[in-house]
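Quick illustration, no need to memorize.
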Amino acid sequence: MNPSEFEQFLKYSHIRSSTKSDSEKISSFIQWCKDKEIEEVILRLSTEEKNWMHENYFLDFTTSRVIVSKKSFTRKILDTGFIAGMAPFPYMILTKDKKIPDFKKGINLNPSEIIRKDISNFFIWYSEIEELYMRKGIETTVSNMLGTAISANFLTIKATNGKEYAFRLPVRKNGPFEKIYFWLNKVMPVKVSTTY
């Protein structure tokens, strides 16, 4: 999506002045993108292995697929994640600031570019996902008299071809379990289950 397309969406949808809930606004945006045949990233989650030397990934949930892209060495160290996993354009729809943003290079995430950047990047069409489930983390990094703090949650994608992809989602980069689970359910056309 380019800035003029985003402005067109804001102008014709009146989304920011509507009384729709946040999830209804995002659903409207997804439907508008599909109608215009525009693939747009809605959520980005950051994965991280316990050993930072292992490969870490970005999981980009677009309007039609999940893109799994390997983080560069620098991004492993400097990655701060997105606010609640929301990609830039959807985040701007939900923000209270009514100004149309000053679009700078790099504000949007082009799905085709993400795939092209690295030969190890791959994607899974939503139609090829048999099951997607989340598990609330029980691993801890902090322990004190008040209890323990959850450091990561877990996401597993089971594809129709029998392959299974498991990811560790650090809380400090992606936010709490409930927020991720809520937004995945709004974005994904397949049911997101939970396991405990």
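The chain has one domain: 3-195.
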